[in-house]
UniProtKB/TrEMBL annotation:
It comes from Duganella lactea. Pathway: Organic acid metabolism; glycolate biosynthesis; glycolate from 2-phosphoglycolate: step 1/1. Keywords: Carbohydrate metabolism, Hydrolase, Magnesium, Metal-binding. Belongs to the HAD-like hydrolase superfamily. CbbY/CbbZ/Gph/YieH family. It comes from the Bacteria. This is Phosphoglycolate phosphatase. The active site is at residue 13. It catalyses: 2-phosphoglycolate + H2O = glycolate + phosphate. Mg(2+) binds at residues 13, 15, 176. Specifically catalyzes the dephosphorylation of 2-phosphoglycolate. Is involved in the dissimilation of the intracellular 2-phosphoglycolate formed during the DNA repair of 3'-phosphoglycolate ends, a major class of DNA lesions induced by oxidative stress. The keyword Hydrolase applies.
């Protein structure tokens, strides 16, 4: 995997890569559904819908019960309810995946610069990174609404490369979904994927990436091994 040889920075995804946030989504979505008179749904159902930002999530959740016209009519009120309910519990039910902190420490110790790029709204992202002790690791953080386009568009990754003054080939993206991989491919960044997150119900093995790593710590080791060998 010589594509990792020149890597100087990493762009790391949030939901499904650093944090298991499905329990937060579950509480906020079901509170919203209750306010709209809809029955609760399961964590498993929600995991299939996370990763493409709030608008996509809310439309998918409402489409379980309603046709497109009714979804659009209720959308603004549903979004407001969802945002209020999510902010009330943001981070209370979510947990770090194994070896995330150790992985970030290892990446930093190797001299890599770190950015977090998520499709989560920035108003949810900033307090969540702080609460979980992740904020100090990242020089740059972009949420799903920080820029005109979100992943799988390459814009957020290209923006990080420009911020760091690095070429895309020098910046590895690490994520849990085809959304992250598509953005990386379109930007020209190498990409590593983790198998434990939310890949829209698809196997991570069917996603085009430069390698699957069990944890962020494994990602750090893999990147280091290519540095020493190159
Ligand atoms: O869609 C979301 O809200 C989260 O997505 P992420 O996997 O890009 O962090
Ligand atoms: Mg993700």
């Amino acid at each position: 995997m010589s594509v990792l040889a020149g890597v100087r920075a990493a762009i790391i995804d949030l939901d499904g890569t650093m944090l298991d946030t499905i329990p937060d989504f579950h509480v906020a979505i079901n509170a919203m559904r209750d306010e709209l008179g809809l029955a609760p749904i399961t964590q498993r159902q929600i995991a299939l819908m996370v990763g493409k930002g709030s608008e996509n999530l809310i439309r998918s959740v409402l489409s379980l019960d309603w046709d497109a016209e009714r979804v659009e009519a209720a959308f603004a009120a549903a979004m407001q309810s969802y945002q209020r309910n999510y902010l009330a519990i943001n981070g209370h039910h979510s947990t770090l995946f194994p070896d995330v902190i150790a992985g970030l420490e290892a990446l930093k110790a190797q001299g890599l610069r770190l950015a977090c790029v998520t499709n989560k709204p920035i108003a949810f992202t900033t307090p969540l990174l702080q609460l979980k002790g992740l904020a100090p690791f990242f020089e740059v953080v972009y949420g799903g609404d920080s820029l005109p386009r979100k992943k799988p568009d390459p814009l957020p990754l290209q923006t990080v490369c420009a911020d760091f003054g690095l070429r895309p080939a020098q910046v590895v993206a690490i994520g849990d979904s085809s959304n992250d991989a598509q953005a990386a491919r379109a930007a020209g960044c190498p990409v590593l994927t983790v198998p434990y997150g939310y890949n829209h119900g698809e196997s991570i093995h069917d996603t085009d990436s430069d390698g699957i790593v069990g944890t962020l710590l494994e990602a750090a080791s893999l990147i280091r091994s290519h540095h020493t060998n190159s």
